[in-house]
Amino acid sequence: MNKKTVKDIDLKGKKVLVRCDFNVPMDEEKNITDNTRIVAALPTIKYLLENECSVILCSHLGRPKGEFKPEFSLKPVAKELSKLLDKEVIMAQDVVGEDASQKAAKLQQGEIMLLENVRFHREETDNEPEFAKKLANMAEIYVNDAFGAAHRAHASTAGVAAYLPAVSGFLIEKELEFLGNALNNPKRPFVAILGGAKVSDKIGVIDSLLEKVDTLIIGGGMAYTFFKAQGYEVGDSICELDKLDLAKSLMEKAKSKGVKLMLPIDTKIGKEFKPDTESKTVAWTEIPENWEGFDIGEETIKIFEEEIRKAKTVVWNGPVGLFEFDQFEIGTNSIARVLSQIDATTIIGGGDSAAAVKKAGLEDKMTHISTGGGASLEFLEGKKLPGIECLQDK
Predict the structure, then answer these.
(1) DSSP states of 117-178 as a string?
(2) Fewest CB atoms less than 10 Å from the CB: which of 2, 64, 68, 300?
(3) Per-residue pLDDT tens for 276-302?
């Protein structure tokens, strides 16, 4: 937690390499459909420009797997940034090649450039020291502000810190502050809500949170593994048969720690995996054969809401239903709505839960929406994130 930020270092007039997370969704015409991650990087970029730095930005986009693919170019991001900053963002044609090096060398104070997609080089994901060194050679200081990629030990997220003084930007500072306080010093009652499809994705998180929370609410596809572990049939619902013993041991751990573990008491089921499938609500103990659970039911919504309303700190990661289909978004939307109404610190752990909150139009009502799904999960799990570990301590 105790890492230096851009405020703890003399930046004035320096050339600064900033790792951002510009991995943004685009449509077929290469228009950016959600610029949240770009907007999140602006406070750090503006601060550097105000301090007369020359700013070199880098990021990945998608998974081009180490080769140049025009559809993964960051050119649309440069365009969007120019618009948001009302200032020209110089676009490099490559990452550590001649074009990038020359443009970086000529970059004046107050100017800003963006390197091409770092993942056009396999050396990026391999965290190859020579590649990291070439990136570092363009600048005098390294700033990591890509929380969404901080759990990866790549050349641009961790490797460069071996060659330059490394500090965090404001976005990473904010993420560490909110997530860190929730874990280490929460106002109580502290409630965690975990959804998503698989228990296996969240084992470490459940285990870690059982040491810290007062109540753990479980919804989404992974609830059916817990039902099955108690000996109930789950029809065609998603269920990890190899994780039943694990689900049992987590329920036992909750009991021994005095943590209230809440599972759905009814579930909205559908005949097929499609938006307009026939559906009905049944008790969780009575899911019929050939039907599949897709959302929490009305009674569950009531008891979950009641519990959430008592909370003073809430961390939510993962939708509690198939929110992409309108008839199965009710549970997830109801959780988003109650979180928007309570007087508590509400932290949304990136990924699908962030998408659900946005879809419900309630993002302004949350205390903090994390920009990193995988990174926030690993942080909640208590893992060390390479992109944070490599930064200088205060």
Answers:
(1) -GGGSHHHHTT-HHHHHHHHTT-SEEEE--GGGTTS--TTTTGGGGTS-EEE-HHHHHHHHH
(2) 2
(3) 999 999 999 999 999 999 999 999 999
